[in-house]
Amino acid sequence: MSETFLPELPQELWRAGKLELAHGVRQFLQVMRMASAGLGQFLAEIESRGVKDLYGYRSTAAWFADIAGLSSREAGPIVRRAIALNPTRTLDGTEIPPVAPATAAAAAEGAIGDHRIDQILEFLGKIPAEVSPEDREYAEKTLATLARKAGPRELTKAETQMLGWLDPDGNEPKDPEPAPPSREVRLERRRDGFWKLTGLLDDELGARTAAVLDAYAKPRPVDEFGQADPRSKAERQGDAFAEVLDLAIACPDQPGTSGYRTLLHVTIGLEELKTGIGTACLDFVGTMTAREARLAACDCLMLPIVLSAAGEPLDMGRLRRFVTPGQRRALNIRDRGCAFPGCHRQPKHCHAHHIDHWADGGPTDLRNLTLLCGFHHRLIHHGDWQVRMAADGLPEFTPPQYLDPLRRPRRNTLHRAAA
């Protein structure tokens, strides 16, 4: 990436002539556009490496929103644009070429801005899949060249003409939608380890489901440091679904769980469990990372099956609950909710987190426990935040150096202020 330098401002701008003013505007506009393209390269590289492994966030957009002080609505388009214009890599290192390389070249030169880029990307999304790669490449190059000098209307006109050439028959007429069944839910495990949930709900159940998800999917309020909730609506609803399941599992009348949060059968090597590096077998059918096993072990029932390096079962652990009901009540009274700075989540939405993990010899007592909501529990396990117990017996959190170079400890003051 070539270096760029800001143009110098005249010492007395009011003396500048109209040509000098226009030239200055064009120079700064070009620098802004080139800087935006350079930023996109960094974001694409973070996306390739995996933002969860790097910084503990669920998505590059969520991490960038925190870094830049933006909302998720503002950060999302910037990250999507960066991924579309720059090559990225899969987990096995296979390179994924950019969606619009000619547009990326024009952006890197500072010749086009975000609005024209988005206009071209939107057009490329309308091209039918059966169009040949050569025709698609030609169309993108033509629009990228035109966008250097054309305005939005001229570009729209060219796109309409080009789409007529690429897809003269237009969209195929759709068959009428069949009448949906009353209630239908499918849960399938994909090869990549994720689970796909699909279904159809009748009007009544759909309304009830929407009401429950909406109640738990409200954005977190702006915290005391001015950070807004970076999650998209879909991400908030996903977290809400997890919270509803946690509440159902913890219900004393729930069949098969007896009020415990989770029951896990985890087969894992002792070294993997201690270090958090490696994988574990979950319930004999799936896999989870060793770090995820450590996270789940904070507040659940586990049946640990510890293996030697050769795979020989060394110990078949007994079913046990790490945090007793009495300890949980004491935690609720002390922390009054998620202890992470700025979080408003109440105790019923929180997990009991071991500050020094039990696999590392950490005791299960109040001096080594704190309440964390699901989001901040994952952030502590996978991110650069750290938690410790202060001298007064209350938890405090140390932020990453990129958020605070001095790494000054922070506390949650929201619950005590509301008490």
Structure characterization notes:
This protein is α+β, with helices and mostly antiparallel strands. Strands 5, 6, 7, 8, 9 and 10 form a six-stranded mixed sheet that branches. Helix 12 crosses helix 14. The longest helix is centred in the first third of the chain and has 32 residues. It is globular and about 70 Å long.
Concise structural overview:
With 419 residues, this protein is of the alpha+beta class. It has helices spanning 18-49, 51-55, 60-68, 72-85, 101-108, 114-126, 133-147, 152-166, 203-216, 233-249, 270-275, 290-296, 325-335, 374-382, 414-418, and strands at 88-89, 95-96, 183-189, 195-201, 263-269, 279-282, 286-289, 301-307, 313-316, 320-321, 350-354, 369-373, 386-389, 395-398.
- State the helical fraction: 40-55%
Class per helix and strand makeup: alpha+beta
Backbone shape: globular
| Number of helices in the DSSP assignment | 15
Number of strands: 14
How big a fraction of the residues is strand?
Answer: 15-25%
Profile the largest sheet: 6 strands, mixed
Mean residue pLDDT = 79
